[in-house]
């Protein structure tokens, strides 16, 4: 099953992704994580992406679509994938749906996590991220067991540069202008399950599981 995990930055997509992927036995494709890996490795693509990410803007569609297309053809995605942070524009959605259709596949569910902007700002400015595996934490709501060390891989847990308050506000504006309208494009094409993301992490998880059971 192919699933889109949709919602503004800070809604809890990354936090919920592991459980969904475990339940459905599908891989997690986060375009943000792919860019951060390139940034860390200092690739040309990473340099290009940085100029957009640091300003809270979207990386151009042609770049993002190429990355997703080359990831989707990998063998572990043959039975479906969880797309987190993609699509973020209508052209990205068109590319995804055309590709899935060419493979005789379709998006089985869109999980739309809804959270108010004030909560998003508090979540993103308190978010901490593992430099090695990308796991996310929150200084208050979900801290790692040992300060600054990842529970999963013992990597260093730090604040992302684009989680500074000014960049967070730019990202929320970008979401409102460019990404929120994608939901209207998805709605007639796939089952959309809107979930209250402003609940405890476990409650959000069980609401998502219930929605996926249909
Ligand atoms: P996204 O991937 O949608 O940008 P994350 O999953 O990284 O969002 O979550 C953003 C921040 O909010 C993280 O610090 C995470 O620990 C925290 N968080 C996620 N879900 C919840 C929740 N339901 N309640 C409180 N904090 C949460
Ligand atoms: P995320 O980790 O999903 O919050 O993404 C971090 C940043 O990467 C975003 O603010 C964008 O600059 C860029 N990015 C991630 N996914 C996409 C996408 N689908 N389209 C364009 N830019 C993206």
Please identify the top-level CATH class: Alpha Beta
Radius of gyration: 16 Å
Order of adjacent strands in the largest pleated sheet: 2-3-1-4-8
Going by helix content, strand content and strand pairing, the class is: alpha/beta
CATH names the topology as Rossmann fold
N-to-C terminal Cα separation, in Å? 13 Å
- Taken in chain order, the helices and strands follow as EHEHHHEHEHEEEHHEH
Q: Strand count, sense and closure of the main sheet?
A: 5 strands, parallel
The fraction of residues in strands falls at: 15-25%
Q: What is the mean pLDDT? A: 96
Helix content: 40-55%
Overall strand count: 8
Total number of distinct structural domains: 1
Task: Tell the overall outline.
Answer: globular
The low-confidence runs, each spanning 5 or more residues with pLDDT under 50, are: none
What small-molecule ligands were found? Answer: adenosine-5'-diphosphate, adenosine monophosphate
* Count, helices: 9
> What would CATH call the architecture?
3-Layer(aba) Sandwich
CATH superfamily: P-loop containing nucleotide triphosphate hydrolases
